Every structure is written in C-alpha cells, then in structure tokens.
Amino acid sequence: MKVTVVGAGAVGASCAEYIAMKNFCSEVVLVDIKEGFAEGKAMDLMQTASLNGFDTKITGTTGDYSKTAGSHVAVITSGIPRKPGMTREELIGINAGIVKEVTENLVKHSPEVIIIVVSNPMDTMTYLVHKTSGLPKHKIIGMGGALDSARFKYRLAEALEAPISDVDGMVIAAHSDTGMLPLLSKATRNGVPVTEFLDDEKQKYVIEETKVGGATLTKLLGTSAWYAPGAAVSVMVQAIACDQKKMIPCSLMLDGEYGESDICLGVPAIIGANGVEKIVDITLTEEEKAKFAEAAKAVREVNGDLKF
Ligand SMILES: NC(=O)C1=CN([C@@H]2O[C@H](COP(=O)(O)OP(=O)(O)OC[C@H]3O[C@@H](n4cnc5c(N)ncnc54)[C@H](O)[C@@H]3O)[C@@H](O)[C@H]2O)C=CC1
Ligand SMILES: O=C([O-])CC(=O)C(=O)O
After folding, report:
1. Are the C-beta atoms of 263 and 299 separated by less than 8 Å?
2. 19 is in which domain, residue-wise?
3. How far is the CA of 253 from the centre of ligand 2 (A)?
4. Whether residue 206 is found in the same domain as residue 83
5. Measured distance CA(69)–CA(56) in Å, rounded
6. 160, 189 Cβ separation under 8 angstroms
7. Are 15 and 3 in contact (CB under 8 A)?
8. Are 194 and 68 found together in one domain?
9. What is the number of the ligand closest to the CA of 223?
10. Which of 53, 199, 260, 278 has the most crowded CB, counting CB atoms within 10 A?
11. Lactate/malate dehydrogenase C-terminal domain: which residues (predicted)?
12. What is the pLDDT of residue 307?
C-alpha cells in the first residue's frame, strides 16, 4: 500500500516515521514545498530502516505530485502551526489556500485516494476538502479525536494514578480549545466508570487539561506538538491499510447524525479499508448533547470564513 504525506515538517515527518516503524505499508511518499526538504527527511528516515527494522520505502519530493500517483491514502499536514497564545482558528487564512491546492493535486494523481486531514483548523479544513475534492464523503477523514482521546487517557491515568493501559475514553465534537468534548461519562478503568474513582475537582481537572492539551504543548514547545499527532495518524492509516474496522473518533461530514448537517465534527466511526465504514451513534447525556451543539455552532462560524 502506498501512502502520501503532504508536509514534511514536524507532524508530517512524525507520521511517516510511525507508519514506517509499524511496517504495514510498502511505500510512503513525503511531499513538501520547501526545496529538498522532503527528500532530506525521507533519506534521514530511510537511514533508520536497518536500525528500526522496517521495510517501508520512504521517498521525498519537492512538489512533484506525479510521484504520489496511485496513493491509497494521503495525509495533509501542510500549513503553518500555531504559536503560543494563538488559537487553531487563527491559522485559517494561510492554511485554507494550502489545503485546497494540495487537495486538488492529490486527487488529480490519485482519484481513488482516502484523505486524512491534519492541518488546522482541522474541522474546517476537513469541510474544505469535502467542498473542493469531489471525493465521496467516506473518503475524507479529519484527525483530531484520536489524538484528543490519547491526551484524555493520559490525563485520566494521571488523575487515577493508574497505568494508561488501564484506562479507556473518547473525545468527540470539535478539535478546538473550547469545543472538545471529553466523554467522562463513558470513560472507564478496566470497565469501571472513572466517575467512581475521581471526585468533582479531579474530573474537572481531567476535562480542562484535555481540552487545552494542544495549547499546553504549544506553550512549552514554542510550536505545536508532533509525536502524538503522528502516532494518531499512523493508527488511522493502519486501520485503513489492514481493514481493522477500529472505532476511532474522527472529524466527518455529518448528514443528520448527532443532530447536525453540512458540518465536519468529531464523532465515533468505524475505520476500515473503505475509509469511514460507519458513523457510530452513541447515547449522549443532555449536557453532552448541548455541548456538542455549542461546538457545532462555533465550527460553523469558522466555516463561514471559507471561500471556495
Ligand atoms: N489535527 C491535529 O490534531 C493536529 C494538527 N496540526 C497541524 O498540522 C499542521 C502542520 O504542523 P507542523 O508539522 O508542526 O508544521 P511545520 O511547519 O513543521 O510543517 C508544515 C510543512 O508544510 C509545508 N508546506 C507549506 N505549504 C505547503 C504546500 N503548499 N505544499 C506542501 N507542503 C507545504 C512547509 O514547508 C512545512 O515543511 C499545522 O497546521 C498544525 O496546526 C498539528 C498537530 C496536531
Ligand atoms: O494545538 C495545536 O495547534 C496542534 C493541534 O491541533 C494539537 O496538537 O492538538
């Protein structure tokens, strides 16, 4: 299976590294606009192959999309990351143009491609890919929920003083500082609701820290995170490549599900060989439903700034 990763920066290179290390793809093509950058990252990563024991061939190109032809999956990470103090939404002005152009190039050379959108503001960039690519909706998947859920589990494990392998949980709704919805009501430690172990103060801490997970790292790093984003993408690509039919929260075009339409938002979905196999309808509490609707309202406002 051939995977293209557009943007060979921090997140793109991390995606390529995790995909290669898991050894389930024959080829990863890195594309960047910066002369020689993708080629350099690909060469550096290939020189880890004998050390890390993978056979995936990684190549790089400066903007030559003919090299991406026949890609089964393409991951869009091109665009600028935020700096401390910024929101993801502030990136729309620059990133929308980049994502639109990249999408056109990808689809031209790989008309059957499944696109995973990473560039921020991710829910809006996923919506843009729907509006401009001509691809069927099961082939466009925004990455946010997989990462946010991993951060939720990290914070749950911290609060529970438990190993991360003991905890499970999911984050849906928007991939934004305010619109994320960590489903505490459904989070468990070995099948037992975490609400049985955590008092109100700890529950609030877990939710708030999860929501600002990206901002916290941006403040520490001076730019946004890349290891967990790359790992999250690799899980999604593997679910497609190996037809795993894993349930992963992803930003998907809704058509009545969760009471919303004509918007991309994070919802649980079954991810397999066809991309989105099914959106999973789970029962939310009244409070969760209200928060989901609030997140949708905010994302819709950002979508309003798009020009097609
Ligand atoms: N959805 C999510 O959960 C996450 C999203 N992100 C987003 O991912 C994006 C990338 O972040 P980083 O990798 O840290 O940034 P970065 O600056 O390290 O890399 C971005 C790369 O995109 C390239 N690029 C720009 N325009 C291009 C074009 N037209 N064609 C091909 N390549 C192009 C740049 O040359 C650069 O190498 C940002 O928008 C960031 O906000 C980051 C982490 C998580
Ligand atoms: O925080 C950011 O800007 C990057 C991102 O989406 C994340 O790490 O969740």
Report:
1. yes
2. 2-143
3. 21
4. no
5. 17
6. yes
7. no
8. no
9. 1
10. 260
11. 147-299
12. 85
